[in-house]
Write a structure and sequence with these properties.
By secondary structure, the chain is α/β, with parallel strands linked by helices. It has eight helices and five strands. Bound molecules: adenosine-5'-triphosphate and the ligand Cc1cn([C@H]2C[C@H](O)[C@@H](COP(=O)(O)O)O2)c(=O)[nH]c1=O.
């Protein structure tokens, strides 16, 4: 079972993901961008470079995803583990879909989904921590080019399109609630996801 946490920067994914370690000690906790590979290092260089080419950045994130899948996600799923990933392919569809909005690529989100279709493993469930772009930017501290409210508004619109296309995969959680309430709601959602599995 592959469960992913998605949402804007500052929506509280990492806070929730860390708290879940105690609740599900046997699960495999992982994240994108990865923090234990040179692919992840390359992605982090692109995130920190305001002049990085958006298309090149897409392919760096996608390379990191390919490595993450073959090295971590697929082996864990083959062992029957529950995998909980802080960000995954939907982040690419939503963020790089927004970054490439004014590029030569006509329908960037569909293009990115097309690239992934041949090799990715779609999550079984995705918990979407929903927060408005202004709160997201303020919480994240606006430390990189992705953490700006106007950009995050486009990213949020892309997440909404993804949810509309696959409503059965997504569980929306109001992430403007206090952290303990967000965590309670995520825990209840996960319990029901795992019970139904
Ligand atoms: N529900 C909440 N209410 C208020 N503040 C929160 C809430 N959840 C997290 N925060 C705070 O917001 C900041 C960002 O949280 P966190 O790192 O968990 O978000 P994130 O979604 O993982 O962000 P990013 O994608 O940028 O890594 C932290 O300072 C955290 O303490
Ligand atoms: C996986 C992924 C991430 N991003 C962006 C989102 C954030 O601004 C940064 C780093 O993520 P973190 O959760 O704050 O560590 O990268 C992206 O644009 N595309 C992706 O596929």
């Amino acid at each position: 079972m592959l469960v992913t946490l998605e949402g804007l920067d500052g929506s509280g994914k990492t806070t929730v993901w860390e708290a879940l370690h105690d609740v599900y000690p046997d699960a495999v906790f992982t994240r994108e961008p990865t923090d234990d590979s040179w692919y992840g290092d390359a992605v982090n260089r692109a995130i920190g470079d305001d002049d990085a080419d958006p298309l090149a950045t897409l392919f760096l994130f996608t390379a990191d995803h390919a490595d993450h899948l073959s090295r971590v996600v697929r082996p864990a799923l083959a062992d029957g583990d529950v995998v909980i990933s802080d960000r995954y392919s939907d982040s690419r569809y939503a963020y790089q879909g927004a970054s490439l909005r004014d590029s030569d690529i006509k329908r960037p989100m569909e293009y990115i989904m097309g690239i992934h279709a041949a090799f990715t493993r779609t999550p079984d469930k995705t918990i979407y921590l929903d927060v408005d772009p202004e709160t997201a930017a303020a919480r994240s501290g606006k430390t990189n080019k992705f953490e700006q409210a106007a950009y995050l508004a486009d990213v949020r619109a892309n997440y909404e399109r993804l949810i509309e296309a696959e409503p059965e995969r997504f569980v929306r959680v109001d992430a403007t609630q206090p952290p303990e309430d967000v965590l309670d709601e995520v825990e209840r959602a996960l319990e029901s996801i795992l019970d139904d599995a």
